[in-house]
Specification:
Length: about 230
């Protein structure tokens, strides 16, 4: 068998301290998983179970990249996030076994075209493209759970040009990692290579060309992204 067009390369992310890479199958993202962020977005965090949206696998971009300011937006936002990498698949995974399915963790930045998202919400239209555009999933090197365990607390922060904009703790997640994995596995069968971006603390805001954005998660790592000019 041959392909009628060249098959795409498998998207992947780095693994800390190794030349090996982790293949990316799908990227799932949890919306409003920190209470303070839910409130700043105008929602009541106590009334909603977790919900998910997706980014394409080839939206992944690594640490240290310069990303062109994306088209069709005047309000590009940062969102610092803990990223979970699934190493063993399954469906209807019980929460008390969910962490057994996690290969490791990484630092992420869920870039968002906020004005496009808000306009879509007002029109009750899907807002996929506000989240799933090119190079919108900044993800640093993975650290294996066998090395660092399963972080349930620790500072998560983001700075722009040296000024702290987001400053929270992983313990503030409404739905911790085990619950997120369990909930998601009720909707889809998880598979090795799936990534889950677990939500962002309060303090989201805009980036402009020339900005340097740094995300740090205690015990996991740090990533830097520079925002370039428009293409």
């Amino acid at each position: 068998m041959s392909f009628v067009i060249p098959p795409m390369e498998t998207p992947s992310i780095a693994i800390a301290g190794s030349e090996d890479r982790f293949p990316v199958r799908r990227i799932f993202c949890v919306g409003r998983n920190y209470a303070a962020h839910a409130r700043e977005m105008g929602r009541d965090p106590d009334r909603e179970p977790p919900f998910f949206f997706t980014k394409p696998a080839d939206a992944v971009v690594g640490d240290g990249a310069t990303i062109s300011y994306p088209p069709q937006t005047e309000n590009l936002h940062y969102e610092a996030e803990l990223v979970v990498a699934i190493g063993a698949g399954g469906r209807e995974i019980p929460a008390d076994r969910a962490l057994e399915h996690v290969w490791g963790y990484a630092v992420g930045n869920d870039l968002t075209r906020r004005d496009m998202q808000n306009a879509a919400k007002e029109l009750r239209r899907p807002w996929d493209l506000s989240k799933g555009f090119d190079r919108s999933a900044v993800i640093g090197p993975l650290v294996s759970a066998s090395e660092i365990g399963h972080p349930s607390e620790g500072r998560i922060s983001l700075s722009v040009n040296g000024t702290v904009k987001q400053d929270g703790d992983l313990s503030e997640m409404i739905w911790p990692v085990a619950d997120v994995v369990a909930f998601l596995s009720e909707s889809v069968e998880l598979a090795p290579g799936d990534l889950i971006m677990t939500g962002t603390p309060a303090g989201v805001g805009a980036l402009v060309p020339g900005d340097s954005c740094v995300v740090t998660i205690e015990g996991v790592g740090e990533i830097t992204t520079v925002i370039g000019s428009r293409d």
